[in-house]
Design brief:
The longest helix has 15 residues. With 108 residues, this protein is of the alpha+beta class. The radius of gyration is 14 Å and the shape is globular.
Length: 108
């Protein structure tokens, strides 16, 4: 596994969400993939990074999306690390400035 590979994968299958809730701002980095092979790949990425949580999303009305796996990174320090290690290789995704990422309140 390499940072450049994860960056390319994240560019195509991931996103950065800014969430404002009850006067607080949160960020999440998410990477999606379907099926058992997708789960295996996301586990490899999670192991390589050393952080992140895996979730299974079910879409009963969409047979092609029967189950979609999601690797979510929510902690401030982990998002900053992801940006530092992976973000520099991303071609499409733009991360917020470090100052903005440092100010937001996370579940730490």
């Amino acid at each position: 596994m390499e940072e450049k590979y994860i960056a390319g994968f994240f560019d195509g299958e991931g996103n950065i969400n800014k969430i404002q809730q009850r006067g607080k701002t949160f960020y999440q980095v998410r990477i999606y993939q379907g099926g058992e092979r997708g789960l295996k790949l996301l586990k490899e990425i999670q192991e390589f990074l050393g952080y992140g949580n895996l979730y299974c999303r079910k879409f009963p009305k969409h047979p092609k999306w029967n189950e979609v796996w999601e690797l979510t990174i929510s902690r401030k320090a982990q998002i900053l690390d992801f940006k530092k290690r992976i973000g520099k290789f991303c071609k499409l995704k733009k991360f917020p400035a470090d100052e903005e990422l440092r100010v937001f309140r996370s579940a730490e």
